[in-house]
Amino acid sequence: MTDANSAVSARRSHDRRRALIGLTxxxxxxxxxxxxxxxxxxxxxxxxxPALLTAAFLAAGATxxxxxxxxxxxRGTHPPDGAPGAGDPGAPGGVxxxxxxxxxxxxxxxxxxxxxxxxxxxxxxxxxxxxxxxxLCAALADLRVDVITLQTHPLTRGTVDEFLLxxxxxLQPDALRAxxxxxxxxDVWIERADEHDLVDTPTRVLGxxxxxxxxxxxxxxxxxxxxxxxxxxxxxxxxxxADPGGERAxxxxxxxxxxxxxxDPRGGTVTVERPYLPFTPxxxxxxxxxxxxxxxxxxxxxxxxxxxxxxxxxxxxxxxxDESDLAAAKELHLRCSEGTLRARYHGPVGDxxxxxxxxxxxxxxxxxxxxxxxxxxxALGHLLWDGDETEIALLVEDAWQRRGIGSELxxxxxxxxxxxxxxxxxxxxxSSNTGMVAAMRGLRLPLDYQVEEGTLVITARLDTAARxxxxxCEATDR
Length: 478
Description:
It contains 13 helices and 16 strands. By secondary structure, the chain is of the alpha+beta class. The radius of gyration is 33 Å and the shape is elongated.
């Protein structure tokens, strides 16, 4: 049963109880009125006519009604928390049809963490004049909304204010948007937040800068976490002789509504797109500062190596890979059969090595390499950034297939995706590639399958519960 249905049932049960109490009161009043009339007739020798009976009935009924009202106030006979009595302007904690809220006592749902509160991130443009922000905050307070954090993004006209709010669970986004608009806000944008957003902005930015300083592969991820859900693409800069009229991002970068273009210190352009919400000059300045930090640091790649024992007893080493592994990766291609390369690249395999420059670049994702104890590269696993989801691709040398290397690589790549907050990972392969299908099923995550003309796309969903479970397992293993 849904929460809404439970609330409706609770409200109906509550109404039935009140109706039963009211009926009992009426019957009690009738009995009391009859007894009073008979007593009057016996003692005063006055016939109990209709007028006297009616007056006695009304007097007894009024007495019972007053008693019930007092009892109701003491016992709190208002609708249960969360019940859909929100249309009643006097319902405690309820939201009126026009989006405003009734008064909520200290014991109301809005005042309790376990009473159905929701974290929401809200962004709106407010007039740049005294009292405009105060009026908006007052309107939020009337809704029993708690402002946890506030960021301001100054514009030429007005200011973009970004709130992290804790709202009553009964307050729907449309009602919240309506109140913000009436309070003077424009261009209102609302999305669900979670407990990971309860970190103040300076702390989060410092953490992202540290990650970028330690590892250049973190830059695209840092940009995504800094700017919210967005797509980060890195494009090489064309040579002047090859494309004389090619567009190149200026050193200071470009801000165009929902698109930011920045000069890549390694050459080329980094483009950030967020179609659902325009970037502000403040966000542009933050992204440019992160790029400048990366440009001032020397090339660096963590070379951490983790030994692993396969089920059959062979020892391998799993480590990060980058452009310095290009020669070894080409040799791996030469040792792989045509069928293995075709299953990996889904097309002509004669020039498959041309993809390696892109795949090994930390600008586009992360790559894990598997080496034998003798230092021979036998497998590569790629995690490629693609908006809210990431693509996973594996290549295992024929002689080392069916030994658990693919599953080990896949598990590590999915964990990396979970650490970056990705909403899902997907693999594109042939429907006949039973090894990849089995490895994806071995993740024990919710899977979606799409088949089109022999191409199979398997998507593993990484919701909050799945990410937390993966990270907990990794922490336990360590």
